[in-house]
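Shipment paperwork, digital attachment
Item: protein structure file
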Amino acid sequence: MPERSPETHVIDYRAAEQLLDARDPRGAIRLLDSVISAHPENTAARLLRARAFFLAAQLRPAELEFQIVLEREPDNAFAHFALGRTLERANRPDEALRHFRLAAALEPRPDFIEAARFAPDRDNGGRATGPGDGAP
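Attachment content:
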């Protein structure tokens, strides 16, 4: 195989974005593996690969990639939200809620705020509880 150049990695990254948009997460992962091998510090590539893992239902690798992104960028609201969705899908709702709340606090987008809310609390007359309601 010919030697890879920085330009080739940019092309691979852009092609991986297109594959993800076309719902081919496994193809995107294959392209991003070489980009990340050559540039392990590239947070954008890791975030894109995390999304691809999530769409491919590879939840543990997605979780690990989102965590790497958050180690580097703890204020990345999207990464918190996406990690929350990953944990939610892995049936870990308490851990997911923490990341949903962090995402909503960092960037109060409607979808982040909605995810950060508690489910209706049966002991509270079915009213949803959230931050400021005495909930943990």
